[in-house]
Known about the structure:
Blueprint: H1 2-8, H2 14-21, H3 25-36, H4 43-62
Amino acid sequence: xxxxxxxxxxxxxxxxxxxxxxxxxxxxxxxxxxxxxxxxxxxxxxxxxxxxxxxxxxxxxxxxx
Length: 65
């Protein structure tokens, strides 16, 4: 559990953060998928991106308007 909290403190890549800010969740999902499939992405960042996928799934439910 604590490791998840530590991962949440890790900054997201700028392109992903901007897509999220704009509410472009489909683009954010594509960015995550691309980075998860990239062998140059660190395992720590991949773990962070997996958590972010879950966050992106829940955001529309929290803000329906």
